[in-house]
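Q: Please design a sequence for this.
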């Protein structure tokens, strides 16, 4: 066996070929490393907390429907459960935080004092909350994420100083370690103190997390909490539904990703796996061609006594060294690709606790991929080299392995490359076509020149309805007086974001009597200018108007999908809707309320660009809600209007600031971000596959021409013209392309089936996409054949 140093010297006799080999391996290994790092962080790795298996989430459940616990649920659980070391809760919100400058609107949490102890979070500066700091009078303390602390100047002396939170003084007691908390949307926390209203009205929905005792499993904790639920049910004399308690590992909840996103990540991992296989086929072809070209040298070694085993080991050692060096390059390339991937990924695509970093599992995966690549592209060329017949090679003056079997193997590798490339390119085409369909979809509203925002720290959050109505009428009046404002409206949510799903009945329809069987519809409250502000089209009846106030008949406008799904072709204007449960936080009564349908509007996309679920709109003046969204249609760039609109808001209430301003075009881009990101990745990997496949065809045809130079010269000497020689060589390459495309149709079907749930407006098989990508591959193969063909036709007989 030759030493690695000797093997390297052999490899670098042809530095150009060796460089191409290393870069090809590095590309395949690097792409796999980058995507697997993301998959590992989101799907496989444990939560980045101490003893993550002890962490669970706790929910209420009514007839298998999971729900958020209420404050009194949490208090009872914490008092009676024996399964937990710690049981904590939090609720998200926004806070106006001021250091020395104007207040900034920051996403934060109200947490129980043991929240960070439950998770096992560590602190960069200061301390955690004390046990008694979730009591009224001692709760004016705040913990900052490291990122927010740096935003406020990064001064260690900030700990112990005062920040103004919602206009009141809060003492900074701690700063979290940089890392996981910085990726969370919530950048600060204050103690959670339940007000009497929150305990009485059951309007506060909590997220509850617990750390199990070491001697409890999840199943044992579930049994313990089932006993608690049964005990609470015996002592509950209200008419509320009996609540169960559901316990799930916290990993299942915190690492929550849509099924489409999970599937997309695994599809991307499969896509880069195809890239690696194509790269391996390319490397195997290049090694085989180089080995066949050097068969005479190998024959001399064999004639001098080298065994077949020695020849095999030498060639295989070359492959292993190439794989190892390519793998090391692949780690560096994978790190670069990962950084670019995370930078281009839409915000909040990944769970906030996921930490995609090169880690030991990722490096072990890369090692496995590298070894596999070395075995794939190393064994076949080494086996062929070891079969050299030294007598035939020396008598013929060329490699004995240049016969029909060696050429057939090269063609088989190229056909395999083309088949894999067609499968990957079809995935690219489907992702691109789906994204184009999403870009063209009728959203049902006009996104241009619309600014949306919230009001931070607005005072009458829990005021009576009449005060809320008067409060927001003043804001709308002030905003509409700003030059350049065309219209302004107040509503709960905006298009492209899901509306609250509310159970209802159509008055007179007795088909659904049980609460659990009631149909649900999206419910928003709006002011009359909503239709003008968002450009929503009315199809039948009328819109809501200023006369639809608290003293008037309660009216609603429904969308086309509502009419189609629930009213079955009848005249919608003759129907009334009865609602027992209104949108969370609204002040409508708990008794059933009837709403007369007065109009039908064109479907508006809600929840995503793919859906327009049944939806109804009611008058904000009849059922106002705190913390709505304000939307403003402007005659000019809405971003340029933010300052003047903020001045108008400040003139109504100096304590209120304009928070979270975004244009509807920005919201639309955000909603499309995930699909755009997936499409870009598939297109990138598809282009790489196309280039590698074309390189494979070129390599085989170039080597074939080199081996057949004498034959071609003889043909031309006997009268074959230049065009005939070119056509003969191109014909061979096109034949390989056609066979490869034929086999690739099966791979394209498999890829399409796997992507089906992520596509929009197309099926798993799209003939237009298949035809386009097949044409691209054929064109690439043709161009790859033409260069060596023209060189062959230039031979001097």
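A: Design:
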């Amino acid at each position: 066996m030759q030493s690695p140093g000797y093997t390297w010297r052999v490899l670098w006799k042809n530095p150009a070929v060796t460089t191409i080999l290393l870069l090809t391996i590095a590309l395949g290994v690097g792409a796999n490393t980058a995507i697997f790092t993301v998959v590992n962080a989101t799907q496989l790795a444990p939560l980045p907390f101490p003893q993550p298996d002890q962490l669970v989430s706790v929910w209420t459940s009514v007839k298998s429907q999971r729900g958020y616990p209420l404050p009194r649920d949490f208090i009872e659980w914490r008092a009676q459960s024996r399964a937990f070391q710690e049981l904590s809760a939090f609720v998200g919100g926004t806070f106006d935080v001021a250091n020395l400058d104007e207040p900034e609107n920051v996403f934060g949490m109200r947490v129980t004092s043991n929240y960070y102890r439950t998770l096992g979070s560590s602190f960069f500066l200061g301390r955690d909350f004390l046990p008694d700091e979730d009591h009224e009078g001692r709760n004016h303390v705040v913990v900052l994420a490291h990122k927010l602390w740096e935003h406020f100047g990064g001064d260690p002396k900030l700990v112990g100083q005062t920040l103004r939170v919602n206009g009141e003084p809060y003492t900074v007691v701690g700063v979290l370690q940089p890392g996981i908390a910085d990726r969370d949307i919530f950048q600060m926390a204050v103690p959670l103190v339940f007000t009497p209203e929150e305990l009485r009205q059951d309007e506060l929905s909590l997220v509850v997390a617990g750390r199990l005792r070491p001697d409890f499993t999840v199943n044992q904790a579930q049994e313990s909490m089932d006993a608690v639920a049964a005990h609470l049910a015996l002592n509950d004399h209200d008419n509320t539904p009996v609540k169960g308690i559901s316990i799930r590992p916290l990993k299942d909840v915190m690492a929550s990703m849509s099924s489409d996103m999970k599937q997309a990540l695994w599809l991307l991992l499969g896509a880069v796996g195809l890239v690696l296989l194509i790269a391996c086929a390319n490397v195997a072809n290049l090694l085989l061609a180089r080995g066949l070209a050097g068969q005479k040298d190998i024959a001399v070694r064999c004639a001098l006594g080298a065994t077949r085993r020695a020849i095999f080991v030498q060639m295989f050692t070359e492959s292993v060294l190439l794989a190892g060096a390519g793998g090391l390059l692949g780690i560096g390339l994978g790190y670069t690709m990962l950084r670019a991937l995370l930078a281009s990924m839409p915000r909040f695509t990944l769970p906030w606790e996921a930490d995609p970093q090169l880690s030991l599992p990722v490096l072990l995966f890369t090692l496995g991929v590298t070894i596999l690549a070395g075995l794939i592209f190393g064994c076949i060329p080494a086996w062929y080299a070891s079969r050299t017949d030294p007598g035939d090679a020396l008598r013929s003056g060329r490699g004995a392995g240049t016969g029909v079997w060696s050429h057939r193997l090269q063609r088989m590798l190229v056909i395999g490359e083309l088949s894999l490339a067609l499968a990957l390119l079809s995935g690219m085409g489907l992702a691109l076509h789906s994204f184009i369909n999403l870009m063209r979809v009728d959203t049902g509203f006009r996104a241009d020149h619309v600014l949306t925002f919230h009001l931070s720290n607005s005072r009458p959050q829990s005021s009576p309805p009449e005060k809320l109505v008067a409060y927001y009428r003043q804001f709308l009046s002030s905003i509409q007086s700003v030059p350049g404002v065309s219209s302004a409206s107040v509503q709960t949510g905006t298009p492209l974001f899901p509306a609250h799903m509310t159970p209802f009945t159509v008055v007179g329809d007795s088909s659904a009597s049980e609460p659990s069987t009631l149909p649900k519809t999206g419910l928003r409250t709006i002011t009359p200018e909503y239709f003008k502000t968002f450009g929503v089209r009315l199809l039948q009846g009328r819109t809501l108007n200023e006369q639809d106030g608290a003293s008037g008949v309660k009216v609603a406008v429904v969308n086309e999908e509502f009419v189609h799904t629930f009213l079955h072709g009848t005249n919608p204007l003759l129907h009334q809707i009865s609602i027992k449960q209104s949108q969370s936080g609204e002040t409508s009564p708990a008794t059933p309320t009837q709403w007369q349908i007065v109009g039908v509007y064109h479907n508006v996309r809600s929840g995503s660009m793919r859906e327009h679920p049944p939806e109804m709109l009611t008058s904000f003046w009849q059922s106002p809600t705190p913390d709505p969204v304000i939307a403003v249609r402007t005659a000019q760039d809405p971003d340029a209007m933010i300052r003047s609109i903020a001045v108008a808001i400040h003139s109504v209430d100096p304590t209120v600031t304009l928070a979270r301003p975004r244009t509807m075009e920005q919201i639309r881009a955000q909603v499309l971000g995930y699909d755009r990101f997936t499409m870009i990745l598939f297109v990138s990997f598809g282009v790489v596959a196309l280039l590698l496949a074309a390189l494979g065809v070129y390599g085989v045809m170039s080597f074939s021409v080199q081996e057949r130079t004498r034959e071609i010269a003889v043909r031309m000497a006997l009268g074959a013209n230049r065009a005939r020689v070119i056509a003969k060589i191109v014909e061979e390459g096109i034949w390989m392309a056609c066979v490869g495309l034929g086999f690739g149709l099966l791979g394209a079907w498999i890829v399409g089936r796997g992507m089906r749930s992520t596509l929009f407006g197309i099926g798993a098989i799209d003939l237009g996409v298949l035809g386009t990508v097949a044409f691209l591959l054929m064109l690439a193969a043709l161009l790859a054949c033409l260069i060596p063909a023209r060189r062959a036709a230039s031979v001097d007989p």
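Q: Thanks. Anything notable?
A: DSSP finds 23 helices and 22 strands in the chain. Confidence is low (pLDDT under 50) at residues 397-402, 581-589.
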